[in-house]
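Worked example

This section walks through a single chain of length 172. The input is the sequence exactly as stored; nothing has been trimmed or padded.
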Amino acid sequence: MKFVPDTIFQSPHCDDRPEGEKISLLVIHNIALPPGEYGGPWIDDLFMGRLDPKAHPYFEEIAGLEVSSHYLIRRDGSLTQYVPCEKRAWHAGASSWKGRERCNDFSIGIELEGSDDVPFSEPQYATLIALTRELFSRYGKLDLAGHSDVAPGRKTDPGPWFEWDRFRAAVT
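Given that input, the structure is written out below as tokens.
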């Protein structure tokens, strides 16, 4: 059975991958908007380019950012897709993996609703595992990395609470 998102949006913050580029990497992130708060429409608004800078003081700092991810997994395990996997989402920024720059060119970005200082939920792991298996069935086995792995010193997510051993064991 094919694993499908609960909600699909079409983020304007994407473009074509370089011609002939194959997907070879999954990048795991975390996000909470405002920081430390969960639920609400703010992540959707950020990825869709409609975040109101007046809605929260933190949003003034990030208003106008053109960022996206392929997927977001909420605390309850629900899955939202913003960018088709065949397109390049703008999630990794300045990044490199195994000597290759520009990870957005060859990766799929998955955001987990959360923070560096909070464990992720059981429903999030269940959805992440099912989604990763689906992506492996489409693209073959992909490398798995955190945003902190592809942008060390610049990013810390998914953070110390992410259970890499558990995740890798469940998908390999």
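What to look for: The chain has five helices and ten strands.
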